[in-house]
Design brief:
The complex is a heterodimer of chains A (186) and B (229).
Chain A lengths: L1 E3 L4 H9 L1 E4 L7 E4 L1 H4 L2 H15 L6 E5 L2 H13 L2 E5 L9 E7 L4 E7 L8 E9 L3 H12 L3 E10 L14 E7 L5
Parallel strand pairs in A: 4-5, 4-8, 8-9, 9-10
Antiparallel strand pairs in A: 1-10, 2-3, 6-7
Helix pairs in contact in A: 1-3, 3-4
Chain B lengths: L29 E3 L8 E3 L22 H12 L2 E4 L7 E4 L1 H4 L2 H15 L6 E5 L3 H12 L2 E5 L9 E7 L4 E7 L8 E9 L3 H12 L3 E10 L8
Parallel strand pairs in B: 5-6, 5-9, 9-10
Antiparallel strand pairs in B: 1-2, 3-4, 7-8
Helix pairs in contact in B: 1-3, 3-4
The chains are: A alpha/beta (186), B alpha/beta (229).
GO molecular function (chain B): adenine phosphoribosyltransferase activity
Protein name (chain B): adenine phosphoribosyltransferase
Subunit structure (chain B): Homodimer.
């Protein structure tokens, strides 16, 4: 079951374009697949527009996109609001000097990396990903940006799974999502 | 600083060259008549050498391509070269510094959009992961679908796969079943073309389902690496 906020007609259309794939990547998970949204040029454009309308004129100098689906949404947002785009990547993908942040998964750990020098002290940053679940990845992204002295203005995702309480993990940082989905984990 | 330009003589170029806009008088368009890659791949510049640090010429130009020249120059100078990544001997062309230059990044996208907007392209296929940075803004601007071409086991649901060769071993690329339709006109995007193995696999995947691949477009070419048979 999905809810949408504020009755923006664009949101209703967006929600219908997201495909749910059961038991991916493992049994019991109802995977929220945004690739079907990307196949509808108008819906994809509306998605980007809704973010751009929110962030244009807010003096955001950096959009950090989380590999890999965060790149798809983060890059057009960055271009539209005139901000730098900074990819946050899995280990060993970024060449040159990086800083790393480890984070906890359900089973085990993972790591996110950011280029040294990509973001400067005092910059205002937006973090973008397609979806927030437990918030572990977004948290790691925020930690990295704050470690280099940036101010994380907001985290922005297309989809939230509120039952996984990712919002609470963001240390009080605002989270903005377009669509909430419930009963996605069994 | 000087441009290292590769000559056209290494390619079999026949027939009439289409009148595509040249991206700068120094940079000659190179057109490969396909043997193994079954579409005309016009490779975009700037040309880069793998052997030596990047060098660029500042050309005084008095013709109408001035605007394009200056955009290309700043794009080229925004790309960072990292020696010995991912392994010794490789001069890695790092586009992340281009993404930090808001004007140069916008110019990069604009150059592609200007080329493709009136070509009836219905699909932009972007290759994971850096193709996901350039592909979506192009797709949005020209009103095309965006289709991610991914490493194995990333796409949920039904996929089709194409295996391709690496220097050591093989890798696989996947695309969603039903993402594209027979008759779709596609543009494939990646940040860089090296041996062409990845782009070749993407072309095959799309053509297997009846898509017409109009062109492959990359920010950077490494012309000294030959296209794989």
């Amino acid at each position: 079951m999905c809810a949408y906020r504020d009755e923006d007609p664009r949101l209703h259309d967006l929600k219908t374009k997201i495909r749910v794939v059961p038991n991916f990547p493992k049994p019991g998970i109802m995977f929220q697949d945004i690739t079907t949204l990307l196949l509808d040029p108008k819906a994809f454009k509306n998605t980007i527009d809704m973010f751009v309308e929110r962030y244009k004129g807010k003096n955001i100098s950096v959009v950090a996109g989380i590999e890999a689906r965060g790149f798809i949404f983060g890059s057009p947002i960055a271009l539209a609001i005139g901000a730098k785009f900074v990819p946050m990547r899995k280990p060993k993908k970024l060449p040159g000097k990086v800083i790393s942040q480890e984070y906890i998964l359900e089973y085990g750990r993972d790591c996110l990396e950011l280029h040294v020098g990509a973001v400067e002290h005092g910059e205002r940053a937006l973090v973008v990903d397609d979806l927030i679940a437990t918030g572990g990845t977004l948290c790691a992204a925020m930690d990295l940006l704050e470690r280099v002295g940036a101010e994380v203005v907001e985290c922005a995702c297309v989809i939230e799974l509120p039952e996984l309480k990712g919002r609470e993990r963001l240390n009080g940082k605002p989270l903005y999502v377009l669509v909430e989905c419930f009963e996605c984990c069994q | 600083m000087r441009v290292v330009c590769c000559s056209n003589s290494s390619l079999a170029v026949t027939a009439t060259l289409p009148s595509f806009p040249c991206l700068g008088p120094r940079f000659l368009p190179r057109i490969a008549i396909p043997i193994s890659i079954p579409s005309s791949a016009i490779r975009f510049l700037p040309l880069r050498s793998t052997a030596s640090p990047r060098q660029i010429t500042t050309m005084a130009s008095k013709n109408a391509q001035d605007q394009q020249d200056s955009r290309l120059e700043s794009i080229s100078s925004a790309i960072r070269v990292i020696p010995d990544f991912p392994k010794p001997g490789i001069m890695f062309q790092d586009i992340t510094t281009l993404l930090l230059d808001t004007k140069a990044f916008k110019d990069t996208i604009d150059l592609f959009v200007e080329r493709y907007r009136d070509k009836n392209i219905s699909v932009v296929a972007g290759i994971e992961a850096r193709g996901f940075i350039f592909g979506p803004p192009i797709a949005l601007a020209i009103g095309a679908k965006f289709v991610p071409m991914r490493k194995p086991n990333k796409l949920p649901g039904e996929v089709i796969s194409e295996e391709y060769s690496l220097e050591y071993g093989t890798d696989k690329m996947e695309m969603h079943v039903g993402a594209v339709q027979p008759g779709d006109r596609a543009l494939i995007i990646d940040d860089l073309i090296a041996t062409g193995g990845t782009l070749g696999a993407a072309i095959k995947l799309l053509e297997r389902v009846g898509v017409h691949v109009v062109e492959c477009a990359c920010v950077i070419e490494l012309p000294e690496l030959k296209v794989q048979p």
